[in-house]
Design a protein that fits this description.
With 324 residues, the protein is α+β, with helices and mostly antiparallel strands. The chain has seven helices and 13 strands.
Length: 324
């Protein structure tokens, strides 16, 4: 089962492994599917390799980009596309491995004056170049990313068909944590807005529960913490939006980011209100509501897995409490 999404949405992430020789090139399972690769060249004069199999006439679409880290302003990678019946173009660097009898097209990186704002992550990057052609022959093709002088963080977007398996979709929040670190942020910096939101909310909730003499109500706490985690993930997105637009130009696409931020915030508020509503009530409607909120939050990338888990657990706890 797969989920189809708009073409502008971020590509499915792909793990790369050790790919610093053409024999260990990272295999791309379906080059027509949209993949995103976030990687790092460790030094100048180094290349990293990718390979895929494709049939004649299928679309080959490759885009190279780099992070906007200030310390990597001089990092300007390029890439070589190698495969049967391609037009030879440019000079392949001598340190880039090239299979015998394979044609190669060289695409040198060209950094624009302004970076690109990506509203769904959200994030920023410099787009350095791309190629979009129909495969001239069936066979194995290779992509080599290289930089002559220095190392740095680069990315590849491959393919056009934007579909996700359910597991890929659900795991996107974890992938985004890696992307933010690829951009140059520490994990602590990324999670700080969410942690601060949960901590501040927990203090306020504890104060309210103390006034109501309900500090010991476990299901209230689990439900509220789920809601705070949902809200925290929305705040995290807002923080990333602000961090990104401070680095580059932006337009109406920020509305998309705001929608992605407001959805988990709305889920969080609904979960907290449900937790406080009639604490002694153990109706099936309330139990199911928690479970539904947890499942919806999981697919809306809210709460970094812990929030949805707590919401579902709250519904199950209420179910067992009713049976006693």
């Amino acid at each position: 089962m797969s989920i189809s999404i708009p073409p502008a949405l971020a590509h499915a992430p792909l793990e790369i492994g050790d790919n610093e020789s053409i024999e260990t090139a990272t295999f791309i399972p379906d080059p027509t599917k949209s993949w995103a690769i976030y990687a790092e060249l460790h030094e100048g004069g180094e290349a990293q390799y990718y390979r895929f199999n494709i049939t004649t006439g299928k679309r080959i679409h490759i885009m190279l980009f780099k992070s906007m880290r200030p310390e990597e302003s001089d990092f300007l990678p390029g890439f070589v596309l190698m495969g049967p019946s391609l037009s030879d173009q440019g000079t392949v660097p001598d340190y880039v491995e090239r299979p015998a009898g394979i044609n190669a097209s060289v695409f040198e990186g060209d950094q624009p004056a302004q970076g690109t704002y990506e509203p769904f992550s959200p994030g920023t990057f410099y787009s350095l170049g791309e190629v979009e052609i129909d495969a001239p022959s069936s066979g194995t093709y290779y992509v080599a990313v290289y930089e002559q002088n220095i190392g740095g963080h680069y990315g590849l977007a491959i393919g056009d068909v934007e579909t996700y398996g359910i597991d890929e979709w659900i795991l996107i929040p974890l992938s985004l944590l890696g992307v933010y670190q690829w951009e140059g942020q520490s994990l602590a910096m990324v999670l700080a807005p969410m942690i601060a939101t949960v901590a501040a909310g927990a203090v306020l909730v504890g104060w309210q529960l103390k006034k109501r003499e309900a500090l010991g109500k476990v299901t209230i706490w689990t439900g509220v913490l789920a809601g705070l985690l949902f809200i925290g993930s929305g705040v995290l997105i807002l923080f990333q939006m602000i961090y990104s637009i401070m680095q580059t130009t932006f337009g109406s696409e920020v509305v998309i980011t705001l929608v992605f931020a407001l959805i988990p915030i709305a889920l969080g508020l609904a979960t907290i209100l449900l937790s406080f509503r009639d604490p002694e009530q153990l109706s099936a409607k309330k139990q199911i509501s928690f479970i539904i909120l947890g499942v919806v939050a999981l697919f809306m990338w809210a709460g970094l897995f812990l929030g949805p888990t707590l919401a579902i657990i709250t519904g199950i706890m209420l179910l067992f409490a009713k049976k006693r």
